[in-house]
Design a protein that fits this description.
Layout: H1 3-15, H2 20-31, E1 36-40, H3 46-57, E2 61-65, H4 72-76, E3 77-82, E4 87-92, E5 99-103, H5 110-113, H6 115-122, E6 124-127, E7 130-133, E8 139-145, H7 157-160, E9 165-169, H8 174-185, H9 200-211, H10 217-229, E10 236-238, H11 242-258, H12 266-277, E11 282-283, H13 285-289, H14 294-304
Length: about 300
């Protein structure tokens, strides 16, 4: 693995305690050029995790607090008339950044949620008929509160499919949480500005290296069998799309690179399959009544596919 990336992960682990796997999955997603949906209870460090990553990467960061009265133009920008110069000027919105945190995205209506779609898929924004390109590195992390649904607008399936991963941010272990408490009370927690480890040029060169990570035909076949399994049986109402298979392949290459390998293994596919599929499949009513969870079903499907040698 790249030395700068190793240093970045070491710093990341010191700042974000108890989320080692999620930290690496988040980094895998941004290296893959994808976007991430973060779900977890308040106070588990979702915002801090994204803000720290932006600083370590040396990229620009913007945060938007989604509310019911937020307008699409509050995200993309708008055109205003400059009285002094007697001309119209375009004021770009916070979406013009490298890493965008869409906080509590399910608190805003579908019209405003849809304002992100063009940007996430096409890396461009249209303001009053004029199209503007976003940076080569553009990464959206959207958060959702998993315990409060009053006054929220669930993300449509089509928009959820735009996200490479859906990550669950759970509470850390007892020891890790106690360590956070100790450092905060003793004022020894690293709470200052995090120095960048990379810059956008070196980040793009790493992304280029990841493209050369080998994924064999056997691994591709294994990936497709997992995805097609989601379309079979009576426990899943709607299975995963072809985009899901592409997401798994891209994320597995990034995960293998972070692990220091230039080839993808079946274990890499297993690692990224669950976060890549959990928001793309919908359980059948009888499976939900029986108390099954999406993660349980994904684990069963992956376990039912023969692992290539």
């Amino acid at each position: 693995m790249n030395e700068e990336l190793t240093a970045l992960l070491e710093k990341y682990d010191r700042r974000i305690l108890g989320q080692r796997t999620n930290v690496r999955l988040l980094l895998s997603a941004v290296l893959s050029g994808g976007h991430v949906l973060l779900e977890g209870v308040p106070g588990t460090g979702k915002t801090q995790m994204v803000r720290t990553l932006a600083r370590l990467l040396g990229g620009t960061f913007q945060r938007i607090q989604f509310t019911p009265d937020l307008l699409p133009s509050d995200i993309t920008g708008s055109t205003i008339f400059n009285m002094k110069e007697s001309s119209f000027q375009t004021v770009k919105g916070p979406i013009f950044t490298n890493i965008l945190l869409a906080d509590e995205i399910n608190r805003t209506p579908a019209k405003t949620q849809a304002a992100l779609l063009e940007a996430m898929e096409e890396k461009q924004v249209t303001i009053h008929g004029e199209t503007y390109q976003l940076d080569d590195v553009f990464f959206v992390v959207a958060t959702q509160n998993s315990i409060e649904f009053e006054g929220t607008y669930p993300l449509p399936e089509a928009q959820q499919d735009r996200f490479l991963f859906k990550l669950y941010i759970d509470f850390p272990t007892f020891e890790e949480e106690q360590q956070v408490l100790k450092e905060m009370l003793e004022d020894t927690f690293e709470s200052g500005e995090t120095d960048s480890v990379l810059n956008m040029a070196s980040f793009l060169s790493i992304r280029k290296e990841i493209e050369s990570v080998t994924i064999s035909d056997d691994i591709l076949n294994y990936t497709m069998q997992i995805v097609r399994k989601t379309r079979e049986g009576d426990t899943i109402r709607y299975g995963a799309s072809t985009r899901a298979a592409i997401s798994i392949g891209k994320a597995a290459k990034a995960w293998a690179y972070i692990a220091g390998r230039n080839y993808v293994t079946p274990d890499d596919i297993k690692m990224v399959a669950r976060p890549a599929l959990r928001h793309r499949i919908q359980l059948s009513p009888h499976a939900e009544l029986e108390g099954a969870t999406v993660d349980q079903i994904i684990n069963e499907l992956v376990g039912a596919v023969t692992v290539p040698r």
